[in-house]
Amino acid sequence: MATLADLPDSVLLEIFSYLPVRDRIRISRVCHRWKRLVDDRWLWRHVDLTLYTVRGADGAGLGRGRVSGPLAPPPRSLDFELGSPGRIPAPSLT
Known about the structure:
13% strand; elongated; 2 domains; two-stranded antiparallel sheet; 3 helices
């Protein structure tokens, strides 16, 4: 009987791509191989931020809840274009 360990990396990456961001981070703690896969840039080429909002000057980073301060609604997603290896491209807000 086949196990997850028998699946090629490309199949696992495809499966992981359906997981929410929080679960992707959690599965990176399963084993060294999954950590390496979660760190793969391909997996993060599109990040859905519909559950998150941007905090204003009174708070930093992304969080759940309302937008505070004079900010426009947060982007619904971030799309990354894969650039040359070793260089993280700038995100495109949509």
